[in-house]
Amino acid sequence: MTYKKIFLVFSFLLFVLPMYSQTDCNCSRALKQLIAKIESEYPGFPEKTKQNKDLYQAKKNILTKKSLLISNETCTQLLQEYLDFFHDEHIVLDDLSKKKNPPHTSTGNPAGASDEEISSKSISSDIFYIKISSFAYENIAPFKELIEKNSEKIENSKALIIDVRNNGGGTDDVYQPLLPYILTNPIRIMSVEFFATHTLVNGLRDYAIKNIKQDSINEVKRIDEDLREYRENIGKFVLYGDKKVMIDSIAINPKGPKQVIILANRNVASSAENFLFSSRQSKKVKIMGTASMGALDYGSIREFKFGCDNYQLLLPTYRSARLPQYPIDNIGIQPDIYLDESISDWIDFAVHYINE
User: Fold this and answer.
1) Contact predicate 319/192, CB 8 Å
2) Cα angle 204-32-233, degrees, rounded to a multiple of 5
């Protein structure tokens, strides 16, 4: 098992280890230890505090004083106020003492996808519409099936409308079947830089060892060798792969539509933004709508323990190699054609644009 294989699995799944109440922190202690964890292991900390160190320090001082007066029952709001300073949708804090509902599971749909998340239809004889509002892992097979089932309609359409509004992301694997129909040329894909921490290294190692087929000393040694560069660079960024930029030459379907419209709004985030980032490199794609959320610079989240078992903290583990030259967080991917509030029916607008 190579490190690349470890990464491919790890980057798409969120591993949350069982939590046992051992150290329940009061608010003052929780804030202090949360700050220490963010400052030492959050990959976005250096860049997001570089230009406003005084403001960050002032925020810490104010919240530290508040934490001495706040009860544990209302502490989560204060901790979240601290985390909000970084404007990163991939930072998640949960108060486990209040978390009573079981995790969301998929709908009863045997294919795994909700009918509301994936759909398609022929708007006219030459315009085909596809809606995909989630790139969740369970949608990989259903979306691939949808594309295969409608391949002839897509190939014979002069235009394709892809609606990703309210798509909060998931995995890039979901949208791969679409790319041969919408791309016109090879695309440039930026690599990522992992922030080497003991949490990251131990998490990858534990997961890899649990998934080897047999108890093999040689296999464990190979895993340790794959992770050696990360272990030797704790506290530093390590580039994944050999290059910052990769050229992805996807086999293009010659029968694809001549025009592609992608509808996107403010709720498009994470891997859905990655879809926009890749698709817009095609000469026949136009993005319509509003700027996306801007949650793409840091990713691959996992649990980071910070010494307070009454809370669960999830943090990203890498930053995009685009940074700092081309940030997207809190900016979003801008549309080619902005649709203002006076346009109530975006699909109808796209159809008229295609037919003009």
Assistant:
1) yes
2) 35
Six-digit token pair at 251?
Answer: 């086999």
For β-strands 159-163 and 259-264, DSSP reports them as parallel
Instruction: Determine the 3-state secondary structure of 239 from DSSP.
Output: strand
What dihedral do alpha carbons 226, 228, 231, 233 form, nearest 10°? -110
Q: Is the pLDDT of residue 218 over 90?
A: no
Q: Which of 103-107, 213-217, 299-303 has the highest mean pLDDT?
A: 299-303
The residue behind tokens 């985390």 is: 83
Structural element, H or E, at residue 311: strand 311-315
Judge contact between 140 and 175, C-beta under 8 A: no
Q: How far is CA 11 from CA 173, 235, 298, in A?
A: 11, 20, 12
With beta carbons less than 8 A apart as the criterion, state whether 267 and 166 touch.
yes
The Cα–Cα gap between 85 and 35 comes to 12
Supply 160's token pair: 């394709």
What angle do the packed helices 27-41 and 53-67 form, to 10 degrees? 160
pLDDT one-digit tens code per residue, 184-211: 999 999 999 999 999 999 988 887 877 7
pLDDT digits (tens, 9 = 90+) for 331-343: 999 999 999 999 9
Backbone region of residue 128 per phi and psi (left: phi > 0; alpha: psi in -120 to 50; beta: other values):
beta
State how beta strands 245-248 and 318-320 pair. unpaired
* Both tokens assigned to 79: 């901790």
Burial class of residue 218, CB neighbours in 10 A (0-12, 13-18, 19+):
exposed
Instruction: Tell me how many degrees the CA angle 130-131-132 measures, rounded to the nearest 5.
Output: 120
| φ, ψ (nearest 5 deg) of residue 9 | -75, -45
Q: Which two tokens stand for residue 137?
A: 């892992």
Instruction: Tell me the average pLDDT across 68-80.
Output: 93
Q: Is 166 helix (H, G, I), strand (E, B) or coil?
A: coil
Query: What single-letter DSSP state applies at residue 51?
Result: S
